Amino acid sequence: MGTSFSTRNRLGRMLWAVIGGIFFRCSPRSFHGWRSFLLRCFGAKVGKGVTIFPQVKVWAPWNLDLRYECVIANNVNLYSQGKITIGCQAIISQGAHICAGTHDYNKPDFPLVTGPIFIGDQAWVAAEAFIHPGIAIGKGCVIGARSVVTKDMPEWMVCAGHPCKPIKPRDLAFKKNFSASKQV
Q1: DSSP letters along 65-98, please?
Q2: Domains of the chain
Q3: pLDDT tens digits, residue range 6-54?
Q4: Distance linking the first and last C-alpha atoms of the chain
Q5: Do 111 and 104 form a contact (C-beta atoms < 8 A)?
Q6: In the chain, which ranges are continuous DSSP H helix?
Q7: How far is C-alpha 158 from the geometric centre of its chain's CA atoms?
């Protein structure tokens, strides 16, 4: 869908740039609760036990849904022009780019197009992976380092490449043990 940003959105992002730049990005590494609090103040939904590191870049906190015990590592870019949901106990590793906005290159004015991104429970997006707008990554899915995800990825699969493709299933014994130990 084509999108243009309201004055309220632009003012909110300006305020977030100042507050986030000072109080989020400059906070001590172990202050995960503080950063979660700041995100909530700007409209993000943040579950219990979320670990979010200070060098995470957030475009619009109000478009984030970070579910319980997910981990967002330093230098992750949550480019939340559209909704980004990161599931329970999911891990987003260093330098990953979760990009919920792009431009329609088939039109002369390149209008903005956004698409929600959903990363399932217990999924892992490895270092420097790129997730395109409108993508769903299934529960327990592993996205390999530096992969470029342009299509939805299935549950409990190891996926990698440019473009990213399913390679093999994850160990089902691990899946049973992991699911049984942490009930939502």
Answers
A1: EE-TT-EE-TT-EEE-SS-EEE-TT-EE-TT-EE
A2: 2-181 (2.160.10.10)
A3: 888 889 889 999 999 999 999 999 999 999 999 999 999 999 999 999 9
A4: 33
A5: yes
A6: 7-19, 32-41, 172-181
A7: 18
User: Looking at 74-163, which runs of residues are DSSP E strands?
Assistant: 77-79, 84-86, 91-92, 97-99, 101-103, 112-114, 117-119, 124-125, 130-131, 136-137, 142-143, 148-149, 157-161
Rounded to whole angstroms, the Cα distance separating 132 from 25 reads: 25
Structure tokens at 97: 């780019």
Tens digits of residue pLDDT in 61-82: 999 999 999 999 999 999 999 9
Give this prediction's pTM.
0.90
CA distance 61 to 43: 6
Which residue, 38, 34, 81, 43, is CA-closest to 65?
43
